[in-house]
């Protein structure tokens, strides 16, 4: 009879427990994000345009500081023609010098609704930031009266986060959200991650107008925490091992969690490392209760001061941050179990 090796490990729920290890078989290392003790780092304030909800921030490093473009909602305006209550959305700007504490918060929206643009008359939301060359590309959701929910992808660019150039819609023919560019081109092509419901797709373009080679990267899985829908979360981060992706999924109980995977550097439609368990899931009160409870959702992650900072909206009410050491991610990427 085969004798199984035992090992005593720490368990957050049971303190210590004994597990059985099958001979010649490695126990996979599960990575988890660590919440910042000062969460949430951004809350609604007295500004009329953001006194209800602030969350879902795109993130990037600029001038050795973390710049955040976040979704903001006030109590004053609602979208017209919908059967449910839905506030007008705008994008705010905040800056952190250490990744955790907000040192600057712009008093006015960076992107607002636009009465002269029918595709943005109800505002804009859920930005993601990718640096390509010396330019920062911002993909966001442009909200309009057209379609079921009015979602269309749009993008803007900046080099200094002071002046922005709007370029209009991306893939006007698709009503979708949850999208962002890869940071850098592959063989002269821009790479766009996007989500025609409910799965994660990738498409390529040389001019950001004509798209080709549309490929499904990941599909929902029955009975899993991402059985209902999924998307990229933060734009992938380049590492020596491949593209590191913090992504999100939703189950049929409307519970959102975050996951992690590694994509091939030359073919980002190919998954080369995948953790089945979530890297972060709703547990704290500010993640469980809010405008839409039981929700953790990321739009931005950065490598900053030897840590990965993952900024996430919680309960569609606040913005929080969780981190993991770069060394631990490096070790995880190297393992092939």
List keywords for this structure.
globular; mainly beta; 23 strands; 4% helix; 4-stranded antiparallel β-sheet; 5-stranded antiparallel β-sheet; 337 residues; Tachylectin-2, Chain A; 2 helices
Question: Using only CA atoms, what is the Rg?
Answer: 20 Å
- Work out the helix count: 2
* Sheet having the most strands: 5 strands, antiparallel
Level-2 CATH architecture: 5 Propeller
Q: In sequence order, what are the helices and strands, one letter per element?
A: EEEEEEEEEEEEEEEEEEEEHEEEH
Please give the share of residues in helix.
Answer: under 10%
The percent range for strand residues is: over 45%
How would you portray this structure in words?
- The chain has 337 residues and is mostly beta strands.
- It has a single domain, classed as Glycosyl hydrolase domain, family 43 (Tachylectin-2, Chain A).
- It is 4% helix and 47% strand.
- It contains two helices and 23 strands.
- The chain has helices spanning 285-288, 326-334; strands at residues 5-11, 15-21, 34-35, 53-62, 65-78, 87-96, 102-105, 124-132, 135-143, 151-158, 165-170, 177-181, 190-195, 200-205, 212-218, 229-231, 237-238, 243-250, 256-263, 271-274, 296-304, 307-314, 318-325.
- The strands form six sheets. Strands 16, 17, 18, 19 and 20 form a five-stranded antiparallel β-sheet that branches.
- The radius of gyration is 20 Å and the shape is globular.
- The model is unreliable at 1-25 (pLDDT under 50).
Task: Note the topology.
Layout lengths: L4 E7 L3 E7 L12 E2 L17 E10 L2 E14 L8 E10 L5 E4 L18 E9 L2 E9 L7 E8 L6 E6 L6 E5 L8 E6 L4 E6 L6 E7 L10 E3 L5 E2 L4 E8 L5 E8 L7 E4 L10 H4 L7 E9 L2 E8 L3 E8 H9 L3
